[in-house]
Amino acid sequence: MHGITAFVVRRLLLGAVTLLLASVIIFAATQALPGDAARSFLGRSATPESLAELQRQLGLDEPVTTQYWDWISGVVTGDLGSSLANRLPVTEVIGERLVYSLFLMLLAALISVPLGVALGAVSARRRDGVFDQVTSVVTLGLAALPEFVVGIALAVLFSTTVFTFLPSVVVTEPGARPWDYPKELILPVATLVIAVVPYTARIMRASTVEILESDFVEMARLKGLSERRVLWRHAVPNALAPTFQVTAINLAYLAGGIVVVEAVFNYPGIGLLLVDAVRGRDVPVVQALALLIAGLYVVLNLLADLATILVSPRLRTSLS
Known about the structure:
Blueprint: H1 2-31, H2 37-42, H3 48-58, H4 64-76, H5 90-125, H6 130-143, H7 147-160, H8 182-212, H9 215-222, H10 227-265, H11 270-279, H12 283-311, H13 313-319
């Protein structure tokens, strides 16, 4: 346990360094955006005096290094600044939207991960059979499709042209929670599931095939165990380690992919908020959301490493 604790501490420190570098890139990118945030907020009717006053209030007249220090020190203390669009604290603007996005990602993960693992394992057991060949072709084709293509195709199929029993646009009321709209969640969740399952299934199949050809699995067969028991008792647990890594990368990718999905379905999460913030040059909100997505990448990769250690006896032994 001491070895695992030291591993977690090292990964947390590495994650902190990663987020620090990400913050520099995010701040530089927002500084490089064309135009002026103060002028964009005030509009064309802004006078030089009002423009200079707003720039002073926002700290835009300070040196770039001072602006970065003020922002990152505020992030560390929990002060993300105020939105330029409505003058509300950024944490308040993001809070409710974050609940919507996390709930959407959670549903997609709970469906896509078991489904991808099951498809990959069954395909490996029926290797080179009809099921395996069909699954390989379908997952390869789905992996090549961008999320917005999948989302638009589902909307056309189930909301407009062929069928009309699912809403293609999510319309919510103020103060409502995402689970209050189960029907509206179907198409966004399905889009994210289709984006994750092909990668998980393909890496799970490759890992399971390799494990099924190993010596200890052959020994289990010689002991008289059924092929199903060999698959689910011996092969699948050992094939999960690399699958967790790929799944974590794909789930982290969802943190960025939800920007497209939420824009397609008008889903009121952080993705749609990011699109609106970029369009309106709401720099504090853009910076906070970009850093939040980077933080999700770091956390999901850490969780994947821990899950890999837990299912891999060899790794647990090396860290003990």
